[in-house]
Specification:
By secondary structure, this protein is of the alpha+beta class. The protein is built from 4 helices and 9 strands. It has a 9-stranded antiparallel sheet, covered by helices on one side.
Length: about 210
């Protein structure tokens, strides 16, 4: 093998190692605390503690909404707020179709633009009163009350809120005696993570 080929091979290996290191950084990012109420084959029912979120609504296709929502919320925690402070990143990023309970449609197949809610969970020590006001009026903060959530792991980055995936988690929950229609996508993986190290979830809110 020529020196040039060895050089390029070395560059590729270094980039792959850097990509793998970046992908595993998600494990060092804190997540909200919860208690596992029940667990079985491929699912858990969790009871989360009360936590605060910053969220924004975006009317666009799923991919565009996720990108725009992430940009707005990242700016908020990076200092685009009333105190200029930086708020630590947490996981997961939570994505919801605004009217999911009524229509249960989360695909991009229609020409009609959908409205999605994208949320960052705030650090557990932050209360609503202690959070700075967003400068961007499209970003809001609120409290999420404690509630049971049916959770299923998925190896997915794109199109994770497809009707088929929703139907699968709803059917799985019904087998366990849990009913609900509002399906959320909880993304733990960092953007551009390696697909095979992705750990993401679908959350079904119990009715």
């Amino acid at each position: 093998m020529s020196k040039r080929k060895l050089y390029y091979l070395g560059i590729i290996i270094i980039l792959l190692l850097a990509w793998a290191f970046y992908s595993t950084r998600v494990h060092s990012i804190p997540a909200p605390q919860y208690t596992v109420v029940e667990e079985g084959n491929g699912f858990e029912i969790r009871e989360y503690v009360v936590y605060a979120i910053a969220e924004t609504r975006v009317s666009a296709s799923y991919g565009e909404a996720l990108q725009e929502g992430f940009s707005r919320l990242a700016a908020y925690i990076d200092g685009n707020n009333s105190t200029g402070e930086t708020i630590p990143m947490t996981r997961p990023i939570v994505v919801d179709r605004e009217d999911a309970q009524e229509r249960n449609i989360l695909s991009d197949e229609s020409d009609v633009q959908e409205t999605y809610r994208i949320a960052f969970i705030m650090p557990e020590y932050r209360t609503l009163d202690s959070l700075p006001e967003p400068h961007d009026v499209r970003v809001m903060t609120r409290i999420v009350p404690s509630q049971p959530i049916f959770v299923k792991n998925i190896a997915c980055i794109w199109n994770c809120l497809s009707p088929k995936k929703q139907e699968n988690i709803i059917a799985k929950a019904e087998e366990e005696g849990v009913t609900g229609k509002n399906v959320l996508y909880a993304r733990y993986a960092l953007p551009w993570s390696m697909p095979f190290v992705v750990r993401n979830e679908l959350w079904l809110l119990e009715e």
